[in-house]
Design a protein that fits this description.
By secondary structure, the protein is α/β, with parallel strands linked by helices. It has helices spanning 17-33, 52-65, 86-100, 115-128, 186-196, 199-210, 239-258, 276-279, 284-297, 304-316, 339-351, 357-360, 363-372, and strands at residues 7-8, 11-12, 43-47, 68-73, 105-109, 132-137, 143-145, 152-154, 164-170, 175-181, 214-224, 264-269, 330-331. The chain has one domain (7-163, 187-281, 302-333): Rossmann fold (3-Layer(aba) Sandwich), CATH 3.40.50.720.
């Protein structure tokens, strides 16, 4: 069938298999072009591996340091004339390309929050790899069914304490308008922490440790974001920020758990990028579109793969001492948060309207990056050609 993008709100409900494969190859080519990372990880588990920073982490590990990888994700395969989700095609392409390189690429498609999937992954690692020396936790889900209580928690994107009004953008229509969000209830705050906080990360590490599957000096990593003050009411000081604070708290608990192995647990603060998760947060898409404009003009722009490769090559596996901020976090957002960058973003933020959106922001670049998440807009792909929904084959 001929597959075209169908965007509904902040999600594209179609995905192109050839385009997704091309996107994966694009990231692989970037990593290959940087040369082999000799001191990198050897056996890697990526929880949430099918898109965004998780996908880039798996690519950087496999094609940067020739690591064997296991990926965990929840994606829908093609069925009844409907394309699979983009993440399913991403993983199909990654697995094939990794195996072409002689690399082990195992995957479990299921609910990473569940005890059953944890057991399945533990059995797989025990059988195929013996242990892992890096665990990347990069889940982005709107809900989580707790494995002990059976209660399904649903996250919300809301401020805490008071309502919040500011600019946002309808990316598809290019309309800048105000959005008002009412404050979250205590139950909503707790639910968001349960979904997006660090409890499940800790459960994963405990399960791996109890199964003796963590190698000596094993590292584990989770990704987070802080951003500028313009986004703080909805992000840093909102329900998401509460979850991210819990993530940092859990990192210390996990670090204590890893002490017998001389292991480490860290939270990496990354820059703003276009992902399915960030597209769902009011205010953030407009901020990112402006940020792209400013950082590209200064030659500072990075996407997921550039960030993750820099994290691996210059921070985690460069052979020297790790550098942290005052709260023990790795900071990869230093280019985004440069004073000259943020001053320019703040100036544009005050001036941007629907009428000057194209001039003052990189809204077109944002749209292009968004569609690439689903395999559209990639060079060399004939989007008018009939496409086999099962390609790349599992």
């Amino acid at each position: 069938m001929i597959i075209r993008p169908k965007v509904r709100g902040f999600v594209c409900v179609t995905a192109h298999p050839d385009g997704c494969a091309a996107h994966v190859r694009e990231e692989i080519d970037y990593v290959r072009g940087k040369g082999r990372l000799e001191n990198g990880p050897r056996n890697v588990l990526v929880i949430g591996s099918s898109a965004g920073y998780g996908l880039s982490s798996r690519i950087a590990a496999a094609f940067g340091s020739h690591a064997n990888t296991v990926g965990v994700y929840l994606e829908r395969p093609p069925a009844e004339g409907k394309p699979a989700t983009a993440g399913w095609y991403n993983m199909a392409a990654f697995e094939q390309l990794a195996r072409n390189e002689g690399l082990y690429a195992g995957s479990v498609n299921g609910d990473a929050f569940s005890t059953g999937v944890k057991k399945e992954v533990i059995d797989l690692i025990s059988r195929e790899l013996g242990s892992v020396d890096l665990v990347v936790y990069s889940l982005a889900s709107p809900r989580r069914t707790h494995p002990e209580t059976g209660w399904t928690h649903k996250s919300v994107i809301k401020p805490i304490g008071r309502s919040f009004t500011d600019k946002t953008v309808d990316v598809d229509k290019g309309i800048v308008h105000d959005v008002t969000l009412e404050p979250a209830s205590q139950e909503e705050i707790e639910d968001t922490v349960a979904v997006m906080g660090g409890e499940d990360w800790e459960l994963w590490i405990r399960a791996l440790a109890e199964a003796n599957l963590l190698a000596p000096e094993a590292a584990t990593l989770a990704y987070s974001y802080i951003g500028p003050e313009v986004t703080w009411p909805i992000y840093h000081n909102g329900t998401i920020g509460g979850a991210k604070a819990d993530l940092l708290h859990r990192a210390q608990r996990i670090e204590d758990l890893l002490k017998p192995l001389n292991g480490r647990a860290r939270v990496s603060i990354n820059k703003a990028v276009v992902t399915q998760a960030s597209s769902a947060i009011p205010v953030v898409p407009l901020y990112i579109a402006i940020l792209f404009k400013v950082m590209k003009a200064k030659g500072l722009h990075e996407g997921c793969i550039e960030q993750v490769h820099r994290l691996f090559a210059d921070r985690l596996y460069h052979g020297g001492a790790l550098e942290f901020d005052e709260e023990g976090r790795i900071r990869l957002d230093e280019r985004e948060m440069r004073a000259d960058v943020q001053d320019e973003v703040a100036r544009i933020w005050k001036e941007v309207t629907t009428g000057n959106l194209t001039e003052l922001s990189d809204i077109e670049g944002y749209r292009n990056e968004f569609l690439k998440l689903f395999g559209f807009g990639l060079a060399g792909i004939d989007y008018e050609r009939e496409t086999d929904l099962l390609v790349p084959a599992r």
